[in-house]
Amino acid sequence: MDRTYEPEISLDRDSQVPLYQQIAEPIEAAILSGALPAGAMIEDEVSMAARLDVARPTARRALQELASRGLLTRRRGVGTRVTPPHVHRPMKLSSLNDDLSEAGFTPTTKVLEYTVRESSPSEAEQLGIARGEGLLAIRRLRYADSHPLALLTNFIPLDIAPTWQELGDHGLYRCFAMRGVEVTSARQVIGARGATEEEAEALGEPMGAPLLTMERTGHATSGRIIEVGTHVYRPSLYSFHFSLFTS
Fold first, then answer.
1. I want to staple 56 with a disulfide (CB 3.0 to 4.6 A). Which of 7, 39, 49, 134 is the partner?
2. Whether CATH 3.40.50.10470 fits 87-241
C-alpha cells in the first residue's frame, strides 16, 4: 500500500491569508522542490480537515486549487496524487520518442499489437497501396518516466515495416531511418474526444475522460505515404505548442 503524505502545515488563524491558501502553499512548495515526488499519494480532504481542525470544504478547496494548477490529480475511488511532469511538445515533424528524450524524459514503449495482414479498402486508400496489399498494423503504449502518456496506432507498408524489437527500442521515425527512409512532410489533424474503455485502461484514465487526438499521414522525400497514425494522449500530462504569426 502506498504511503500517504500528510503535509506539515502551521495555520495562522488570525492571518488575512485564507486557510485554504495556507494549506495549499506548503504542499505546492514540496511538489515544486521535488520533496514530494510524482505519483505520491496525498491524504484525503476528510483526514486533512480533521487533522488540521478546519472545515472539510476548506481542505477540499486547497486540494482543488492545486489540481487546477496541474500539480495534483484527483480521482474518485483512487485518491489524490502528485501529477507527473507535463510534456510540452512543439509543433514540428518529429517522433514523440525523440521529443521526450530532448525534453529530459525517459521514454519507453510497450508494443501491444503487431499484426501483418491484408489492407482493407479504406486502409489501402489512406496508404496509397493496392487493395488487399499487405500492411503492418501496430499499437504501442508510450511512457514518459514510467507514466503512460500516449496510445499510438499506425499502419505501415510491409516493405519498410520495422520489427517488434525495433519498435520496442526506438521511435517509429528512427526505425524508418534505419531503412534509409526519411519522413519529410506530413498532414496532421489535432482534436479531442472521450476515452474508450480500452484507452482508459491503457492510459490509467477514467472511461470517457477527455483525450487529445492526433491523426497523421507521413510522406517520404519521394512523396510516398509511409505511415498513417491515429494517436491519443493524456491532456493532464501532454500539450502541443504552436507559434503563430500575422503573415
1. 49
2. no
State the angle between helix axes of 45-52 and 56-68 in degrees (0 to 180), rounded to the nearest 10: 130
**Residues forming CATH 1.10.10.10 domain(s) in the chain:** 19-82
Task: Please return the burial class of 142, using the count of CB atoms within 10 Å of its CB with bins 0-12, 13-18 and 19+.
Answer: buried
% of the chain exceeding 90 in pLDDT: 57
Q: What is the pLDDT of residue 246?
A: 58
Q: Which CATH architecture has domain 19-82?
A: Orthogonal Bundle (1.10)
What does the pLDDT read at residue 242? 65
* Beta-ladder partners of 223: none
Nearest to 22 by CA among 57, 59, 47: 59
For the packed helices 19-33 and 56-68, what is the interaxial angle rounded to 10 degrees? 40
Give the model's pLDDT for residue 87.
Answer: 62
pLDDT exceeds 60 at position 1: no
In this prediction, residue 79 carries a pLDDT of 82
Is this model's pTM higher than 0.85 or not? no
Burial of 42 by CB count in 10 Å (0-12 exposed, 13-18 middle, 19+ buried)? buried
CATH 3.40.1410.10: which residues of the chain?
87-241
Query: Is 66 within 8 Å of 80 (Cβ atoms)?
Result: no
CB atoms within 10 A of CB 212: 19
Q: What is the pLDDT of residues 56-89, one digit of tens each?
A: 999 999 998 888 777 888 777 778 888 776 665 5
